[in-house]
Amino acid sequence: MTSSHLPRPLLAIPGPVEISPAVREAAAAAPRGHQDPALIEAFGRTLESMRRVWRAGQGEQPFVISGSGTLAMDSAVANLLAPADSAVVVVTGYFSRRLAEMVRRRGAAVVEIEAPLGEVPSPEALVAVLAQHPRPKVVCLTHVDTSTGILLDPAPYAAAARAAGALVVLDGVCATGGERLETTAWGIDVALTGSQKALGLPPGLALLVVSERAIEARRALPAAPPMMLDWLEWLPIHRAYEERRPAYFATPATSLIAAAAAGFDELLGIGVDAVLQRHRRAAGAMRAVWTLLGLREVPTGTGAVAHTLSNLWLPEGIGDEVRARIAARGAVVAGGLLPELRGRSVRVGHMGWITGEPEILRRVAAAVAAGLVDSGLGGDVEAALAAFDETWRRG
Ligand code: PMP
């Protein structure tokens, strides 16, 4: 694989991420009209691919709407909740809190279930809250909260929510395509993401898979949500595209749809399970480097660490200036996002296309290690990279 199409330094924040040459080529082609047969085909194929990646069936409806992950979240809240309703949010970081704030802005009541930084509220904590509070309409979960690096196993929370008669919203913005997802089997009513993360696409698309129950909840709302967010406006358009018929409601981001079709073709060509395994392998190799350097990660619970990014505590005496040193060594990483982590952690993305490109991943690991050593961390970069190689080789 030639990496001549990559910028210097490498983009290793937790999204947007580096994209594959094929996706880049598709995105860079001359824009199609929204009724062009090639665009209709790309749109229809993207929706079919989403069902496979999300592990959803014909009963669920995929939507691709221009916007980012935040728009996908707003769309879930606007279509499911009316001001008289209530929701429970399992908080694992900054983005779960954003979802809770959206619910409040909708005028609905919200109960947030929190845990100390780095920890996940237990499924039992959700069960207890559901027993205390009058039937919430929605339970919101964050698959990977990018601000903490916490991975939440949605299955037991979704089961508890369903048992209480609630709809389940899963924010998969930093997870879908990189962490196991079983939309139908887990009973997720809205599984949403943005294009720029583990799916390895350029930023600009909000992608959602929505259950029939959720569509029914939208139909039952006392007042329609804003038009651009309204699933009932989008439903006939998406059905038409999937049936390869032209349609129009609001202009789709045709270049991004072309990129999405190419990206999903690539992903499904490798296979969903193989792509998830690539993410686990990449995470393992990166973590071998962090361990050798004596670095600690923010998530503390066993099994609760994302495969899509690392959130590393900065050692005593090293602050946010380390990011410029890491960039000088060849990779752009992100700083802490939560107030309690600002200037105290760095976040390194390892998701999407680069998880199948060990040389690129290794360059990211090398840049982080060298930047930290340049900032005063005592450590052996060569030994850390040997640990990367060894862990990668084991698969
Ligand atoms: N949820 C999670 C878990 C995220 O990581 C992000 C983006 N970092 C968002 C929501 C918001 O997505 P966007 O920035 O694409 O609007």
Task: Report what the structure shows.
The chain has 395 residues and is an alpha/beta fold. Helix content is 43%, strand content 14%. It contains 14 helices and 14 strands. The chain has a seven-stranded mixed β-sheet with strand order 2-10-9-8-5-3-4, sandwiched between helices. It has a three-stranded antiparallel β-sheet with strand order 11-14-13, with helices on one face. Strands 1-12 form a two-stranded parallel sheet. Helix 4 (94-105) links the parallel strand 3 (86-90) and strand 4. The protein is globular. 4'-deoxy-4'-aminopyridoxal-5'-phosphate is lined by residues 15, 68-70, 95, 142, 145-146, 171, 173-174, 194.
Sheet-strand content, in percent, reads 5-15%
| Number of strand segments | 14
Strand order of the largest sheet: 2-10-9-8-5-3-4
Each distinct ligand: 4'-deoxy-4'-aminopyridoxal-5'-phosphate
Global outline: globular
Counted by DSSP, the helix tally is 14
What do the pLDDT scores average to?
A: 97
Main sheet record: 7 strands, mixed
Please state the CA-atom Rg, rounded to the nearest Å.
Answer: 21 Å
Helix-strand string: EHHEHEHEHEEEHEHEEHHHHEHEEEHH
Helix content: 40-55%
Low-confidence runs (pLDDT<50, min 5 residues)? none
Q: Structural class, from helix and strand content? A: alpha/beta
**Oligomer type:** single chain
Cα(first) to Cα(last) distance is 19 Å
